[in-house]
Protein: Site-specific integrase
Amino acid sequence: MARPRTPIGTFGELEFTTLPNGTVRARTRFRDHDGRLRRVEASGDTRKSAEHRLKEKLALRGGYSAGFGELTPDSTFSHLVDVWLEDLDLQGKLAESTRALYERNMRQLVMPAFENYLLREISVRKVDQFIKRLASAKSYSTAKQARTVLSLALGLAVRYDALRENPVRDTARLHKPPSETMALTLEQVEAIRAAVRSWRRAPGTPGPPPDGQLEQIIEVMLGTSARIGEVLAIRKCDVDVTVTPATVRICGTIVSPAGKPTYRQSHPKTAKSTRVVSVPTFAAEVIRQRLAVVSHEPAENLLFHTRNGTPLTTNNIRRRLRSVLSDAGIEGVTPHAFRRTVATVLDRASGPDLAAELLGHTSSKITKEHYIEPDEAVDPVTAEILEALAPKRAKETS
Structure:
């Protein structure tokens, strides 16, 4: 019967020998990372010092614990987070805004609960209770975001052999509370347009009047389904009003990293959502107006920008829209509401697949779940079909 093999990176029993000069020699057999067993030894004045020096040697050979390199089971969770963030930067696959979101979620949501633990102390039970408490105290969305970054970090610990398994994997599934996607009605859209057009334009209003960009941005969002950052990233060279219908290429977004200047990112939220969309006449008219404003500027310039020519930030547009609508008594409308409205209108006319294509989604499942308002009305043709079940009239007696 074959003997079980010693796992790589582990050692056998320690042997101690007192040498003629009085020092103590500690010796063991160590299975190296090439799979070969080797004898390793070290000496010291006492058994304890000899053992300590031997383990130092083993650590230098790749570690005598299950972990090696940057992380071991005795590493702190805080150290894991530092290594994880460095690894994210090394991969360089995340958008800067996503990288910042991951770090913020980790430091604000996860670190307070786990920063004092060693990796070997993090169990499925602790992780499961943490996620459930967060969902109860905060929200499903907050718990989901915390779960994501915690799983990513602990997954790195598994790849470094500092953990055998990712504790997040066996936690209970988060159940999303029922929610209903709400699109704007045509009457609500007209009320928003009226509120934006009249904002700070009444006679006697102090200060300069608005430059008109907010209402133009809303029309482009309604005409393209683009996210607010994508609309603000449209350049002169991305539009073509010489064709009918006019087209807009959605190929970038505006990013505002913490502590850094706002800039145009050369791809939308995802690289696959780059698309060329044909726009309705009301959006094409707004684009022509913006082209007239920036007619003397280079082709790479943005259609929408500040007075200094710098990119508008998404936060400023959201804040301004919220202020305008609040003054008009309209609450709960965000730029994303226009995107949901477009998806719902397209779904009613042609189904979810066309809506998903326009919104830049890879699957209509996302569009139906998050962007299209449910339609409670059943096709009225059912009434005509069910006439077949009508009771037959009794024959008239002669």
In short: The longest strand covers residues 24-31. Residues 1-8, 63-69 have pLDDT under 50 and may be disordered.
